[in-house]
Design brief:
Length: 122
């Protein structure tokens, strides 16, 4: 589990940093036009939060629908799984993933402060 968490942390940090680099010119142009750092951050956060929310909802819907099927495939005579859906576990997973996504966004968006107006050509 720890290795899985670390892998997802590095992959998600890398994806958010790639997204910021992709939007770098937009952010610099916003700074030139007088937008504050907060407005620039909200511009970027809007898309990432909508994507995160969509991923959470899609994961919840697909996870609930596929759990029973996958449990029946993995089960054998030697190992049986509980087939009931535990709502508390799903809510806990949803909350933990939301917190995880917010932490990654906070870490990644700190790089916005380091952008310079001269970086527009890179």
């Amino acid at each position: 589990s720890i290795l899985s968490i670390l892998l997802s942390l590095f992959v998600l940090l890398n994806l958010v940093n790639i997204y910021i680099r992709h939007r770098q010119n937009d952010i610099i142009i916003m700074a030139v036009n007088g937008f504050s750092k907060g407005e620039q951050t909200r511009y970027l956060l809007r898309e990432t939060l909508i994507t995160t929310l969509g991923g959470l909802i899609l994961g919840l819907v697909l996870g609930c629908s596929m759990t029973g099927f996958l449990v029946r495939i993995v089960e054998s005579n030697d190992s049986m799984f509980v087939r009931n859906i535990n709502i508390v576990a799903w809510v806990f997973g949803l909350v933990m993933e939301t917190i995880f996504a917010l932490i990654i966004n906070v870490i990644s968006y700190r790089s916005l402060k380091k952008l310079k107006l001269t970086d527009i050509m890179s």
